[in-house]
Design a protein that fits this description.
Layout: E1 2-5, E2 11-15, H1 26-44, E3 54-58, H2 64-75, E4 82-86, H3 87-95, E5 101-106, E6 110-115, E7 121-124, H4 137-153, H5 161-169, H6 174-183, H7 195-200, H8 205-228, E8 237-241, H9 243-248, H10 256-263, E9 271-274, H11 280-290, H12 297-307
Parallel strand pairs: 3-4, 5-8, 8-9
Antiparallel strand pairs: 1-2, 5-6, 6-7
Helix pairs in contact: 3-11, 8-10
Length: 310
């Protein structure tokens, strides 16, 4: 999604297109980014030369290897003054009024990034289970599926997830799921992760344990970032972003307390906040700062009106 705003934070126009992660498909990412920008400009009746600054917050903008690909790709968009950052950076900036802080992402996967008061940046995670990550929607869906299978074959604890999963997937028995998924080499659907919150709401011990582990893992990542950046004694926001923590754990009962318990052992002044706006808001704020604009409270208020997540 590409969003244009004026210097007071009023949204002027937006444009949407497909996925923008070059790690998934470089050609598609380039086409999608160009298309989203063009659609926003056309909607606003503007040309690129009228955009004073842009910041692109992109999934997959993680390492110098990525930026070597992205710099010429984004230069080709045609907006002279611009910057490229990871999508974690815009999520962090969207969720706090401070220039420093930490963001914990828990969507399809997990990621954690921090910026300290000296503008030093450190990212922990975001590169899959093999590189130390645990959880996110895809992995949590597997945990649901696995827990049901373990109960069924006698290795696991009884869980409400069995009934919920069968109803959700439209099967009569676990045996039928077992046979289908083995015979057709299927992978558990990602939307099984949402069943964890339904079961946890009924105090299911298996679901509660899985969500506790997710919270502890996010807390450990935030701890690692705080230590690496020397933020142990600082007061800052930890922005929680991604569908699992913003839409799944809406009440904040099942993941959030475990993040806080871990993190506060290292950074007791840290405050957990949930991102309630589109991450694009962070890109707009960073673009305004790139253009030398001092962001006032009225700017945040104006952006939050139109970019609030419904």
């Amino acid at each position: 999604m590409a969003v244009i705003c004026d210097q007071d934070g009023h949204e002027v126009a937006r444009g949407t297109a497909g996925g923008g992660n070059h790690q998934v498909n470089r050609r598609q990412a380039e086409e999608s980014i160009h298309l989203a920008v063009d659609r926003a400009l056309n909607s606003a009746g503007l040309v690129k030369e009228q955009i004073t600054a842009a910041v692109y917050g992109l999934a997959g903008a993680d390492r110098e290897t990525d930026f070597k690909i992205l710099r010429p790709m984004l230069a080709g968009v045609g907006i002279e003054k611009h910057d490229i950052v990871c999508d974690t950076v815009v999520a962090l900036r969207a969720g706090t009024h401070q220039p420093d802080g930490i963001v914990c992402i828990c969507g399809t996967g997990t990621n954690c990034l921090g910026v300290n008061s000296r503008k030093e940046v450190y990212q922990c995670g975001g590169f899959s289970y093999a590189f130390g990550d645990w959880g996110g929607g895809g992995s949590l869906a597997v945990e649901v599926f696995r827990s049901v299978m373990r109960q069924w074959d006698g290795r696991g604890t009884p869980t409400l997830l069995t009934r919920l999963m069968l109803e959700h997937m439209g099967y009569e028995t676990v045996q039928a799921v077992y046979d289908d998924y083995l015979d057709q080499e299927l992978h558990p659907p990602r939307d099984l992760a949402q069943l964890l919150f339904q079961a946890a709401g009924q105090y299911d011990p298996v679901a509660l344990d899985i969500l506790k582990k997710q919270g502890e893992e996010l807390g450990l990542a935030a701890q690692a970032v705080a230590r690496r950046l020397g933020m142990e004694g600082d007061a800052f926001d930890v922005v929680l972003a991604g569908s699992v923590v913003t839409r799944g754990d809406q009440a904040g009962h099942h993941i959030r307390p475990h993040i806080a318990a871990r993190l506060h052992k290292t950074a007791p002044k840290a405050r957990l906040v949930t991102l309630h706006t589109e991450p694009a808001m962070g890109g707009l704020l960073l673009a305004m700062e790139l253009d030398g604009i001092v962001v006032g409270d009225y700017v945040y208020a104006n952006m939050e009106k139109t970019l609030k997540i419904s």
